[in-house]
User: Fold this.
Amino acid sequence: MSVVDAAQPTAAKKKSDSRFWWYLLRRVGQGLIVILLVTLIVFALLHLAMPDGPATGILGMQATQAQIDAFNKAHGFDLPVWQQYLNFLGQIATGDLGDSFKLNRPVSDAIAQRLPKTLILALISMLVALIIAIPMGIFQAVRRGRTSDYVLTTWNFIVYSTPSFFLGLILVIVFSQSLRILPAQAPQGESVAAVLANPGGLVLPVLTAALSIIATFSRYMRSSTIDNLSEDYVRTARAKGTPVAVVVARHVVRNSLTPVIAMLGYYLPVMFGGMIVVESLFNYPGMGLLFWTSAQTSDYPVLLGCILIIAVATVIGSLLADIIQALLDPRTREELS
Amino acid sequence: MSTPSPTSTVALATRTLSPRQRGVRRFLRNRLAVFGIVTIALFLLFCFVGPLLYPTDQVHTDLRSTMLPPGSPGHPLGTDDVGYDILGRLMAGGQISILIGLAAGVLATVIGTLWGAIAGYVGGIVDTVMMRIVDAAIAIPATFLLLILSAVLRPSVPLMICVIGLVSWLVPARLVRAESISLKSREYVLALRAMGGSHSRAVLKHVVPNTVGTIVVNATFQVADAILLVAYISFLGMGLQKPATDWGAMLTSGMTYTYAGAWWLIFPAGFCIVLTVCAFNSIGDGLRDFFDVKGRAA
Assistant:
């Protein structure tokens, strides 16, 4: 900051504000490009994997060449690939995700019915996980190198190295098969309300998802807190006689949370990827299962639609994470602009 | 820590250690990393030498001896639902899991390193385009990509290596790019360029070798993740066709018999996965201390 800026704090503030908005605009533009690239990647992959289009997958092996030609003509698969891609872009630009080949309904309908269920499962799992992982990480950092830290680190290390479907399976064996206190199948209701009406069925899916998230985020929280504990402001506060617990609660937690919150935005694709496993293990009719069945029936439009939705969510998520980080920590705001 | 204490032996006190020797000591002092190395060595012996000492038929089913519990004569770990010997199957499945894991981890590391090194070194519009592609690919969950690819292509070992490698190179690309940016303005790179050395020489002789710490540490974690991904593919029903198998496929087919109480179809394969992945992760942690690089949160 120059001398002039320091002399005129309001002008400096205005300047850094406008730089912040420029940064935001640039990030939104980048996000749009990323989404465009996602559609291109998925489109290219589908065409590399199925050069002749999905016709035989949809119509079956017995389909005659005439039927295949008719299908290809009806869905535009007879056009050159680049033209198919442009048609697809034009279509999604108007908010239309097309019709499913197999489900006899628009893709947006199918996703609108399934997505909320995945979101509610993901949200509850994330909340449960953070409520446990954040205090766990702080506790481990404060008691660094002691037995309790060592035990928790080892535990998280093992959970992190375990496939989540194996974790879920162990939970099912313990709680459903041996103790018989929880159902092994997730709620099957059509709507979110119906799902929430059966909280018992949600316990094991949520626990399975949450255990993996806890293992990841308590590691972040632990190392972030350790970094902050060695900062000068902690030493100053301690030197003034503030008890450790107060220093941690008042100063360290807020500062160490910032990078962890930023991780949340980037964690979204991992989260969605994990949901597909949890959903198929507990037979929970969310978007993961929808994607899984669509992959097996080569239902192009649904596959593209699901990935598009996730990509948009990820771009928005990482944007929000950066903004929240900037709001929480003035230092990053300076770096951004 | 690096200075020998007065009480140590004369030989130690008089010999100054090279940075590499100090690193090796740090690595060996990390008991977890040594555990990792020993575990992987034992698993390699088990999977690749084991079948020579304990030959079993892993191709033909044996419907006269299915679901035998552990301890049955001739089948120390029992048999599965179509009569394969579990101990022998763990070896056969382990070969595939470890082979795919190692190969896919290396493939992802090579692609990611070159991509990141070039993007960071060239900079400008090339860097922007290359890194936006990475951003876009990272926004698609790996399991979703794997599902699309393995649903339409016939699963085989080389295909699974390529598919897993192709979804896993993004993180190393980002890490190497960051290092490459800081390396390209170092004096020795500038000197090479001033003397007429080519760009490709600068990238291959200086940028890539100087990121070797980051690359090796990340490669170890990549192998661990790849072994998990193999298991996920099998769980989602897109794995190799029988009689070929991997630990994930064994675990998944055993899940059908959870309620029959056939724990030996589930836990041996599950523990093999967990132990191997733990071992690779702890080697990664040890190597990170050895190279003194920042990788994953400790």
About this structure: The longest helix of chain B spans residues 86-122.
